[in-house]
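Study this fold:
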Amino acid sequence: MGTTSDLRPGAVIKFNGENCLVIESEHRTPGNLRAFYQVKMRNLRSGKMFENRFRSGESIDFVRVERRDYQYLYNDGDMLIFMSMENYDQIPVNKEMVGNPGRFLKENQEVQISFEESLVLSVELPATVTLRVIHTEPGVKGDTATNVLKPSTVETGANVQVPLFINEGDLIKVNTSTGDYMERVKE
């Protein structure tokens, strides 16, 4: 157990019987009213974001979370198979747990998996990944002055909007949380 003053981004708390990840926590003291904490959280099971207001000094049930390094092996229907980097144990994780960033997972990529005892709470990909473009329309010489984007398909099968100068076979850096093109990577 802890209090509202212990709320920090990245902490996992038990709220309404669900495990929730604290995204933001702000202490507010509005004029002559009592102080409170405005907390933005994400439900780890459903992925929904919401806000809640806690009274200052209120008791909160913190969940002990352990993070371990795993390597993505392969896709098996609705499950993604990961291997422990320490003891080579393999664990299946539901695709819904990874969410939208899962479309950028490529084989042998390292991720961090958060556990509460043996229950998987979340899978965190690196902030950026480098992927090869396998299909896109050819670039036209001289079309680099504008911010026009074209669709492309990367090696994981995900679709990414890229600038006109990107061609098939190029390596690009992609932001895993937004799915946006960041830059071209030299080999």
